[in-house]
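Please, structure for the following, as tokens.
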Amino acid sequence: MQELGDVIAGFLYAILILIVFHPALEIIDHFNLTYKYAPLIIISLHLALGIFSFTLDTWSTSRGDTAQILGSGAGIACGSNFNYMLGLMVDPTPEQLPFIPPSITVTLIGKAMLKFVIGVVVLLMLRAAMKKISIPLACKVFGIPCDDIRKARQRMEVELPYRYITYGFVGFGAMVIVPYLLTLIGLH
């Protein structure tokens, strides 16, 4: 469990990062969406940040959390690029703006809840499948015994790829697979 000081320091650090990067956000977003090699750069950058954070000290659960956050971010950014490149993420025309929210009805609430449940189930299935694949794969690649999964996951060589790959696919699934599935079944 995090101490209150850690949470406050993290919050203040996040504000500092936003202040520094705010002027460049539009440029970064445009690059992430439109540059054809952006996924390669995104994955490489997030992976390098994960490896760097793992070399700072010994293994801890916070290192796994870092890999999970970086993997999710990479998956979401790559998914956004994928959607944009396929023309699935279109900017609204000036005539469509400003958006007018629909009236809240029982049908709207039911449809939103159904979309939420379907999305969560799909992402949980994707997470379970990637976990089943990535942990044994990392153990095999790095020659680590996979008999005790809990012990194997305490090794950086297993934890980083497991979290990064699994949550990278979850992020990609949230941006690409779930919306596509909802469109296929007529709920988008």
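The chain has a mean pLDDT of 88. The chain has one domain: 35-184.
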